[in-house]
Amino acid sequence: DAGVTQSPTHLIKTRGQQVTLRCSPKSGHDTVSWYQQALGQGPQFIFQYYEEEERQRGNFPDRFSGHQYPNYSSELNVNALLLGDSALYLCASSCLTDRAQENIQYFGAGTRLSVL
Amino acid sequence: DAKTTQPPSMDCAEGRAANLPCNHSTISGNEYVYWYRQIHSQGPQYIIHGLKNNETNEMASLIITEDRKSSTLILPHATLRDTAVYYCIGGYFGNEKLTFGTGTRLTIIP
């Protein structure tokens, strides 16, 4: 059983460009959350998708957008990249509808984005 | 979400028990306490969680004080592979947003 998988593992972009990161959730999970982790900091919540809709959003600008597909996989899109967007982007999956799983999120290894 | 406070760093000798404290004095009655850890360059890994009672699983034990204002994560026999940043997080079931602080950097010393 594959866990949470993210692609690509590393990415280099220049300022002003756009980027798309991808995430496949753990089997049986229906919810995907995205986090940004700057160097030396804890992960910061970007947003969460459930049933193909954005369910919650953290304090991130509209340049950050996402999508969830019917198979529960998800994408994170960032437009007009800034140097400050350089970070490790983490995807986490969970099962919202199964109370027995009690909000346990399982994380992927992340995509390291460098903006030059 | 409850604000949590953890020491920035701790050392523990290999083979000894590692006890990681966390203060969460503002936690509400139906907020869980979750512990995750992050080994260098990897995604965070779930360890354990609890609401009121002490909990144990194959990785660790979680001791929650009766007033729920603090908790301790115990790794019973620390190994070098337990060197990581450990995060204590308060959260509601169904909320699912995890608010990470800066965690405790635990170093296991041979």
Structure description:
The complex is a heterodimer of chains A (116) and B (110). Chain A has 116 residues and is mainly beta. Chain A contains no helices and eleven strands. Chain A has strands at 5-7, 10-13, 19-24, 31-37, 44-50, 53-57, 64-68, 74-78, 87-94, 106-107, 111-115. In chain A, the strands form two sheets. In chain A, strands 2, 4, 5, 6, 9, 10 and 11 form a seven-stranded mixed β-sheet that branches. Chain A has a four-stranded antiparallel β-sheet with strand order 1-3-8-7, with no helix packed on it. The radius of gyration of chain A is 14 Å and the shape is globular. The mean pLDDT of chain A is 94. Chain B has no helices and nine strands. Chain B has strands spanning 9-13, 18-23, 31-38, 45-50, 55-56, 61-64, 70-75, 84-92, 104-109. In chain B, a hairpin with a 4-residue loop joins β5 and β6. Chain B is globular and about 40 Å long. Chains A and B meet through β4, β5, β9 and β10 of A and β4 and β8 of B.
